[in-house]
Amino acid sequence: TLTKGSLSWHYKGKTPDTKGNNIFHSDATLIKDNFKGRTKMLGELGQNNCTLEITQIRNHDNGPFCFRVELVKEEGNEPTKDMFSFDKDCVELNMITDPAEPTLTQPMAATQGEPYTVICSVMHTCPTHVPTLTWNWKTERLIVYHRLIRSGNWETQSILTFIPEEKDDNRELTCTAGFNGGQTSSSKFTLNVKCIESYNHIIIPAVVGIGTALLFGIFCIFMAKKYKNRIAELQNQEGTMWNRLSRLSRRGRR
């Protein structure tokens, strides 16, 4: 079974059996000195995966680089005649000096007291050293995703959800991406918070006024009823006195 072999990534047009021509080789003695310790095979031959990781990228790591495999028998590591060179599918790297800036996706405006969600995303090329995304905000409700966009390109997303307050209006919200090697980049925007109208300055005086008028009305009704009863009592007393005087007057005439 041919599931093992000698693997190498070498400069295009160079023979992989010579030291200095390989950025990676199963035989570490054949790796070019300035690539030693910086390259590692991530893929497995049995899975038809020849993915190579290069760390601490330098400006001369642009290639082109080609993959080659020389298969051996699983028992005894005996060499075979099965050798494959992918000279027509070499890889060339485009070097950039500054890392990609994060992309911010957010609604146009936030509403005071209602949930508000902002998405920060950044592209990268190394799933074993994903960028870290941080916010200049409280991050109690934070979700982070990593996904493959296409071969050799991944995306990291940070989804921030919070409840904006009135004091957050015109505040800057910043997302910073930290990359392997220490480089950073950031993006920001100014948060616009739509404040909920407060009618307390109208409602409270109106309620106080209505309450005062209602209490005054109840007091007036109570006093009117009280005085009405008092007047009736006085009228009854006057009638009784008049009756007594009338009786006394009639007796005197006899």
From TrEMBL:
Superkingdom of origin: Eukaryota
Annotated InterPro entries: Ig-like_dom, Ig-like_dom_sf, Ig-like_fold
Transmembrane segments: 202-224
Keywords tagged on the record: Membrane, Transmembrane, Transmembrane helix
Keyword Transmembrane helix (UniProt): yes
Domain Ig-like: from-to ranges: 102-190
UniProt-recorded name of the protein: Ig-like domain-containing protein
Native source organism of the sequence: Astatotilapia calliptera
Lineage, top ranks: Eukaryota, Metazoa, Chordata, Craniata, Vertebrata
